[in-house]
Amino acid sequence: MTLRRWTVVALVVSSLLAGCQGEDDATADAEPATLTPVAETDRFTVELTADAADRLGVRTTGIRGVGGQGSAVPAGSRLVMPYAGVIYDADGSTWTYVETAANTFTRQQLRITSVVGSRAYLRSGPEEGTRIVVVGAPELFGAEYQIAGEE
């Protein structure tokens, strides 16, 4: 991930955190994101408050199978998703955030065969029909890695 992208992630996460400080109701003390370790991994499930999810504009869509797409499907592909939902980590591994409950997301690894336009074709990843994040994924990544605005 480039320095520019990390900077954008840090600024957005910082804005998310700062936005919660001005509230005067019971949610003012709540953290915008709660992290829960995923067993036997180095990953965390990210649970956002409803206000934080709204502020980030998180949007999801379903993973689709490639059946019926004809000869345009790259060899070895069995799934397709919007490329907007793909996240790259520091070593170039590809991930997406899966919605596991309302405003709750867990990072899952992908094996991409090809990117064609706005679509990523996958050898492996979440099962067909699984809801993935297509808007707000970099912010979830920043929250998971606890990247603050000053970093």
Keyword list:
elongated; conserved putative lor/sdh protein from methanococcus maripaludis s2 fold; 5-stranded antiparallel sheet; 151 residues
Describe the structure.
The protein is α+β, with helices and mostly antiparallel strands and 151 residues long. The protein has one domain (3-144): conserved putative lor/sdh protein from methanococcus maripaludis s2 fold (Beta Barrel). It contains 3 helices and 11 strands. The longest helix is centred in the N-terminal third of the chain and has 17 residues, at 3-19.
Q: What is the radius of gyration? A: 16 Å
Question: What count of helical segments does DSSP give?
Answer: 3
Reported by name, the CATH topology is conserved putative lor/sdh protein from methanococcus maripaludis s2 fold
Helix coverage percent of residues? Answer: 10-25%
What characterizes the major β-sheet? 5 strands, antiparallel
Report how far apart the termini are: 15 Å
CATH class: Mainly Beta
Mean pLDDT: 84
Content-based structural category = alpha+beta
How many distinct domains?
1
Tell me the number of strands: 11
